[in-house]
Amino acid sequence: MAGCNEKELEASHNYKPILPTTHGAVGVEIVLNQICSGADSSRMVKLKSPFYRDAQGHLYLKTIAQREVKNIDTLVDVICFNGDIPQFIDVPTFTALDGWYAKDINHIYFFRPYSDGEHLTLVKDADSKSFHIPKGEYLNGEDAQHVFCNGELLKGFIAGKTTYSKDNQGLTVKLRCGRLVKSIE
């Protein structure tokens, strides 16, 4: 990268350099967290990928974000530890599902990719025992009774009675259940 090396980056931003990313950019490690600011990632304990816990017991999700860095004219991938996640996640039983969903023994979660890294939110009203991703879907999920889109419950849509309409590229554009129609943009 022209105009920036790891020592300059470390000195100017107090970031800890890591291995270059797959995009060839210089990687840096920072901590993103409004709940527990000042967390020291070097003192975190890896539990099960992608989860870490700090000395105070706070749970973090390790993710990659994009940041503007002084003297670099492109966005830089950085490793972040997002502490703004549900703290009740049962890490030993946590499993990523197809698409943007995950589950543990008690709950369903939805990954939302943003430029500041992945966010992990609880999917309210979802039954973890019966939850599944319909074939060919990634934003939509169902449990024994409900249908979910982008991690949100679709009121009135019934599992097993909802149809998924796809465009010519195979992406779901509409969900139908009786007279109810939900367009997906």
Task: Explain this structure.
This protein is mostly beta strands. The protein has a domain at about 1-85. Helix content is about 5%, strand content about 40%. It is built from one helix and 16 strands. The protein has one helix at about 5-15; strands at about 15-20, 25-30, 45-50, 50-55, 60-65, 75-80, 95, 100-105, 110-115, 115-120, 140, 145-150, 150-160, 165, 170-175, 180-185. The strands form four sheets. Strands 1-2-6-5-4-3 form a six-stranded mixed beta sheet, with helices on one face. A four-stranded antiparallel beta sheet has the order 7-8-9-10, with no helix packed on it. A three-stranded antiparallel beta sheet has the order 11-12-13, with no helix packed on it.
Largest sheet: 6 strands, mixed
Low-confidence stretches: 1-38
Helix content, binned percent:
under 10%
Structural class: mainly beta
Rounded radius of gyration (Å): 20 Å
Strand order, sheet with most strands: 1-2-6-5-4-3
Index terms:
185 residues, mainly beta, 6-stranded mixed sheet, 4-stranded antiparallel sheet
